Amino acid sequence: MARRPRLSADPTAAAARHPALFRRVTRARIATVLVIAAMLGLFALGIVVLEFDGRRFVQGLFRLGEFVVFMVPPSTGNWATFMIYLHALAETVAIALLGTLLAAVPAIAVGFLAAENVVPQFVIHFLSRRFLDTVRGVDELIWALIWVNVVGLGPFAGVLAVASANFGAFGKLFSEAIEAADPRPVEGVASAGGGRLAAIRFGLWPQVAPVIASQVLYYFESNTRSATIIGIVGAGGIGLHLAEQIRTLEFQHVSALVLMILATVAVIDWLSTLLRFSIIGRRETVG
């Protein structure tokens, strides 16, 4: 039985036998140290440029505590106001749902175009990726301001803002999921005589559909919070009421609105988790 060669404990001898390996390790360590030093330098520069003041931060915490005291107990004043807020909250959820679906459907088609294993042509692949990057680079709040000026105030502008902001992200995530799919089922369909569309439909789509559905559900949950923010600029939903109550210093109304939003997000999170597990399956834990 052959004996395995023993590694020398002497680093000098090891370096003499493998000089190139040690040069690579040394360069990697130097590069790591330089990157860490650069990040620390940028952090220190940011503190100076942005005028970070610890004393002001502590004073702000005390003022935040005063605001919390003013928010107790949460109250909407009367049932009529509560029903107005509830209607606005339902509008926010509808904005998030419609915006998510409106972004997901066309993003599936663009995701296939942006996937190298589906469309190998470099030009189409490159243009699709850059188009998605461009759309994804514009923040949701900016989209809300754009659509409010295009179609006017109201929830329709909010739906278009959520859809525009999510379209680029969906396209990127979907294309990456398609590229990460196992090619063997596609090759099996093709070897059985299936065409290109049949290979995508029966070999590729069953693999990526659960992943896409899971991502859409996750973004719907996230968009419920985002739809609250864009409502502040006039894109409909409960955000407009929240901004108005903050401006008028009605802190009890503010706390009631925040609790309503948190409860809604918690319920949607619970429901979306159940749906994700029903689609992709629950992982077994090894105890």
Which CATH architecture of the largest domain is right? Orthogonal Bundle
Structural class: mainly alpha
DSSP strand tally: 0
Fraction in beta strands: under 5%
Extract low-pLDDT stretches: 283-287
The CATH class designation of the largest domain is Mainly Alpha
The third-level CATH topology of the largest domain is MetI-like fold
Which range best describes the helical content: under 10%, 10-25%, 25-40%, 40-55%, 55-70% or over 70%? Answer: over 70%
Order of H and E elements: HHHHHHHHHHH
The CA-CA distance between the termini, in Å, is 39 Å
Tertiary shape: globular
Rg of Cα set: 27 Å
Number of domains: 2
InterPro entries: MetI-like, MetI-like_sf, PhnE/PtxC
Protein name: Phosphonate ABC transporter, permease protein PhnE
Organism: Blastochloris sulfoviridis
Pfam family, one: BPD_transp_1
Structure description:
- The chain is mainly α.
- The chain folds into two domains: 11-71, no CATH class; 79-286, Orthogonal Bundle (MetI-like fold), CATH 1.10.3720.
- The protein is built from eleven helices and no strands.
- Helix 4 runs parallel beside helix 7.
- The radius of gyration is 27 Å and the shape is globular.
- The two termini are 39 Å apart.
- InterPro entries: MetI-like (IPR000515), MetI-like_sf (IPR035906), PhnE/PtxC (IPR005769).
- It is found in: Cell membrane.
